[in-house]
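Hey, I was hoping to borrow your eyes for a little while. For a while now I've been wondering how a particular protein folds. The fold is given in discrete form, as structure tokens running alongside the sequence. Could you read through the record and tell me how the tokens relate to the sequence? Take your time with it, there's no hurry, and the full record follows here:
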Amino acid sequence: MTENYIIGNGIISDGFSFLIQNGAIEIENGIIKQIGKTDELKSKNMEFFDLQGRLVLPGLLNPHHHLYSAMATGISPIGETDNFTQILENLWWRLDKSLDEESIYYSALYGLIKSVKYGVTTIFDHHASMNYISGSLRLIEKAFKEIGVKGLLCYEISDRMGEKAIPQQLDENIAFWKDHIDDKNVHGLLGLHANFTLSNNTLSLIKNKMPPELPIHIHCGEDKADMQYCIDNGYEGPVHRLHEYGLLPPNSLLAHCIHLSPEDYDIIREIQPIIISNPESNANNNVGEMDLSKIEKYCLGTDGMTGNILGTMRSHFLRQNGEISQPLDILFQYPGNILKRFFPDSGMLEIGKTADLAVTDYIPVTGINLDNLFYHLIFGVEGQRMYMTISAGKILYKDGKIQTIDEQDIIAKVKKAAQRLHKKYYE
């Protein structure tokens, strides 16, 4: 595998502060060594990849994914799906209870393959497999390391298997987090499903056992049922309830944030957790949309719907009728700052940082600059697959092929695992 090389004859941009026409990037031992003009760097005696005018961006972050859903296509709900709770009970919770060692691993592997093809180099995964808890995060980690992307992993704690199952779920999170504090590519978080599936007793137990510096990753105010549950328990809303239990340490991730109270918004402004909107999932589940006038900073996740972040932004843009403030910050600057919190050497397309890059398969034929870059992404790239995806200098995807594994062999195994998973789901 090539370790030292140059990609050039491209349009290089970090997405918000610079754009270089006919640019090039020198990569050495996984690090960005130089960024400049192609003519200046091409003269070096190094392998050169000619991008032929393609647009080069930082590797993309998906801060809220469910890789366990990767083999769910074609599964039908068992029961009514007239509201959000029924969708969970009759589809997703039934699916996650069907997962076993094989399907957890191949779901992760297949989901990562699909994500890499769209330029994603880091994924924050929110996992659930209620009948296979202990060791589940290790299986997912194995897939991350085989493909070659970075990850932030957690197990989704929930009362839906009874409170007696909570200690095992909690231990899976804490043990994985402790074991990966010094890992450069995979870390742990504390995963929580949502307020409305976590009793007061469970939150107390979590608070008593949780290391105070361990951030959480939770669905927060996704549906009105989450808000109503908190009100019924004497709280102003889902953020307020978590805050009262001391479960919002720095760098915590709150996904969705649709059904919130004034008190919730005040707490968000005060402690500034990481907010993740999931527009395609919200539309699919008919739960509403985040109030962009009340959330100052947020990034985009996919909530298991897809591995395609630029495609998700296109959907977000269209659903908001084009009224999005600072869209490049949502795509690049804010995710980059988030990444640096967990992976200090990553996050930005700049000299000295880890070479995580997404080379689009788009060659602009009209003028491109920072002022119109976003529109080239929405109406030029159009959420299509990348030409090349690079993680820590390693070329993971190029010319339509995954480079780190035998994709054809893996897909054959994924198909068999999916067949067994679907059979188990319907039993």
